[in-house]
Design brief:
By secondary structure, this protein is of the alpha/beta class. 17% of the residues lie in helices and 30% in strands.
Length: 187
Amino acid sequence: MNLIVAVTKDFAIGRDNNLLCHIPSDLAYFKKMTTGKVVIFGKNTYFSLPKQPLPNRTNIVLCSNPNFKADGAIVVHSLNELFGEIKKYDPQDVFVCGGASVYNKLMPYCDKAYVTMINNIVPADTYIKDLTKEHFYLLSETTPQTENGQEFCFQVYKNENIKVWNTHTEQLEFSSPTTKSLEHQKL
């Protein structure tokens, strides 16, 4: 399993249920990396998408409400259910896509993190854990580029201490996420 995220230098991901910056290349990167793959969202992030479910992807929504349903998506209500579902897929084809609670809970189980690093700090109200303090090390980084006044680069991190989910010993329950939206644009 992997995660894909756009963050600022302080690992902020959103404000007022929106992305922090509009960067078309980031949206194109997200689409390229996740099309034909499995994407995992919390409920609020899922509803913030411009289209539900995201086309040409297997959409999984993690939501603690047992009555929640989402047309065209697989809904799971616990981490045990999630891990039971994603074992049906190649782990390299599974992408955690937010929001913050989902990223932070699943980060230890991710092999790689595909990060759009925005070289700025902007007002934000939603953050994820700093990957470099969570056993991830930088594998690769593109040359910085600028769009819409924001300098950014694409980075790939590798988790050197991947945690393996064991449904018999781990019974963590998922709490309702505080998530932020993806930009309302066609992904």
